[in-house]
Each structure stands twice: as C-alpha cells, then as structure tokens.
Amino acid sequence: MAAADEVAALQFTPTWIVAAVCSVLVLISLAAERGLHHLGKTLKKNNQSLYEALLKVKEELMLLGFISLLLTVFQVTIQRTCIPPSWTEYMLPCQRPGASHQPPGVAATGPRFTVAEILGGISRARVLSEGEAGAGAGLCQKEGKVPLLSEEALHQLHIFIFVLAVAHVFFSATTMLLGGAKIHKWKQWEEEIQKNHAAGIGPKKVLPVQQLSFIRERYKGFGKDSMALCWLHSFIKQFYGSVAKSDYNTMRLGFIMTHCRGNPNFDFHRYMMRALESDFKKIVSTSWSLWVSVVIFLLLNVNGWHAYFWMAFLPLVLLLAVGTKLEHVIAQLAYDVAARHTAIEGDLVVNPSDEHFWFGQPRIVLHLIHFILFQNAFQLSFFFWILMTYGFESCFMDHVGFMVPRLVLGVVIQLLCSYSTLPLYAIVTQMGSYYKKEIFNEHVQQGVIGWAEKAKKRSGLKEGHSTAESMHGGDDVA
C-alpha cells in the first residue's frame, strides 16, 4: 500500500506526464477565456442584456474557483471532523433500504447515514467505501464516529452550487430575451404615436370618460363590489393582453407630462428598455439572501415531507400576486381619472404615484421577480442535477405524481414571467413618483456623473482651504 502511495505521489510522477497534463489544462482554460472574451465583445455590440448575463457567468466562474480552493484547503479538515452516528439518524432525505415506513424525522433501525447523504443522496455503501480509503474516515472509525462529509459529497455539493448559479443566469437571460421580444413589439406603438403627434393628429374633442378605451377596459365602477371585481379582472388580465395599446399610450403620456413636459417627443420606449436592462443586472445577480433560501430548502428536504413539491408553488403564488398587483396599478390610474372627471377634452393624462405600489416602493416588485426567478431556477436545476447525477430512480425524484407537476409549474412560471409579468413590470414601474437615471442617454449620464464628481472634489478642496485659513488666522490671533 505504501509503495502504491509513493508511486501516486507527485515527486514520483514522470515530468512528461505532469507537463502534458498541465499543458492540456492551460490550453483549454485559455481557449475558454478567449472565447468568452470575443463572445462578450459581440454581445456588447448587439445585445446588452446577454452581455450582462455573460458577465454574471464570469462572476460565477470566479466564485466557483474560489469555492474549489476552499474545498481543497479544508477537505482534510472536514473529513477529520467526526460526529456521533446518532446525529445522522434524523431528517433523512431518503428512506433507508429495507427500513419500514416511518414518519419524517423519526429514526429507523438499520445502517446509519451521514450528513453527506442528506446533501448529496449518496448510498451508504459508497460513503463507507470512500471513508475507509481516507485517513479522516479511518480516524473517525477508530473513535466510533463518522466523518461529517465525504470527499464525494464535497465534490457533488460543489457541482450543485455551480449548476444552480449557471441555471439562474440562463433562465434569467431567457426570461429577458422572451420578455424583451414582446416589449420590442411596442416600439411600433411608439413610432405611430410620435408620427401622429408630428402630423397634429390626436383627440381634441370632449368625450365622456366612459367612452375612452383606457377607462372602459379598466374601470369597473365604485364601491366594494366593483373593487372586488376590479381585483378579479386584474388577476385574469395578466394571462391575456396584459398591456393594450391604450394602456401604453396613456401611461406614456402620463410619464411625459409628469417628468419631461417640455419634450413631448420623448422616446418612452427606448427609456423603458434602458431601464429594464439596468434592472436586469439586479435580476441576474445572486445575493446572500437567495443562498440562505437555498440552504433552508435543502434543510427541509426530509423524506415524506415532499418539500420540493410544495415549495414549487411558492414562486407561482408570488408571480400571480405580482402580476395581479401590476395590473391593478393600471386600474388604479383609471379609477383616479374617473373619480375626478366626467368628461375629458383632448388626451387622457394619468398621474403616476408611488402610492399605487406596495408600501410606496416600486422596487419591491423587482426584488420579488428576482426571488421568483431564482427559486424557479433552483427547482429546475435541482431536478436535472439529480437526474444526471443519481438517475431517474433516485429517491430524490419522489413519485411521478409529485415530479411531473414540479416540471409543469417550472415551465409555466418561466413563460408567464417572460410574456406577462416582465413586460408589465417594465412599463408599470415607470408610473412611480420618480424617474430613473436611464432617462438620460449614456453620454449625458457620463457627463452628469463626471460633473458631480468634480463638484464634490472642488467642494472638498474649498472646505479644506477654508479650514486651513481659519486655523492660520487663529494662529495669528494667538
């Protein structure tokens, strides 16, 4: 055994083998790096959203490399961390082979599982065989304990984190592409509106509010019954024709009259797309709170609880709530006009306000969409990771009656968010009290930011100069 270890050691490995392996790894790494570089240059010219997604993939690759380093450094420490076998008898993700059915969390007789099996679903025989091969596992066996995590479990956990991060970026980019394609169709509305405005074509006569298409489609009367009907209509509306031409025209005019009255030809569609691309950077990122939710979901993956099945409904419920709220914001704009006017001369103008959104914060909608997309990516990536790693017959797959609905819900969430919720978010969140910095073009943004930085520096220099003069004056007085 010692001779075999000596042969496997690096100091007894032929240099041509080491050089050849290193050359192949370096060549593959360089090819991948240059490929990503050229892909980034192409996407930056043609599609800013996909370029941002690519940057996030690079960040995830860097994070993966750091995780790999940590796993390598602490691998021996983790394997030498021993725990009592009784600690591995609770909250098992799969029922032990040959064990009778028992309620979740209740220990059963038979061979014990390690915590590695909770995270990775590794069989008992596989863990023991790997544990006996390692010095850490041998040390734990001598003490009558089991290792905290095996080498194989660390490797599988490492892969899962990477798969989840990449899946989140992929599904977010897919949502952005599909949603952006629908929003792009609104550009013809923008061009038609500007063309009519340039030709002086527009409604000039007095019309009752009930005859205006925007009010007619959204207004359901006053009172408790009509408000309940309004919420129901908003819920149903998100599934078909979520934004009509009259909606776009009215909200566009409301934004212009509130934030840039002096520029009636303002390109609202371009501004909206720029704002959406800026928000996409937030959607495609992975924050610490999202990783905490993953840890919680992994913790609740106990045999018999069917946690992943029930958790698949969480992003769907949130998505429906967000879509309904966004549709209701449009309805509220119509109700405000109907409450103040019986007839309108010329164009219908609505008043954007943060009061229409939850807690007066339109950004809450963005955070919810971010959470929804991440959780949906988690559900789908976990399913395919289990399928590729452990096979269709794995206990993680659960029964077909639980598995199929999870996949269907994942697809429904992806499509609904792409074709309805994201376009709604893009236009409705512009109905807040404030506009975003994307209202300026890139050159103006850079100029304003540069001017602000210079102003801060000049202000700092003036304060420092005045302070020095006061101190010098104090010395003269003294």
TrEMBL record:
One of its GO terms (cellular component) is membrane. The gene is MLO. May be involved in modulation of pathogen defense and leaf cell death. It is found in: Membrane. PANTHER family: MLO-LIKE PROTEIN (PTHR31942:SF129), MLO-LIKE PROTEIN 1 (PTHR31942). GO terms for molecular function: calmodulin binding. It comes from the Eukaryota. Its main location: membrane. It is a multi-pass membrane protein. The C-terminus contains a calmodulin-binding domain, which binds calmodulin in a calcium-dependent fashion. Pfam families: Mlo (PF03094). Belongs to the MLO family. GO terms for biological process: defense response. This is MLO-like protein.
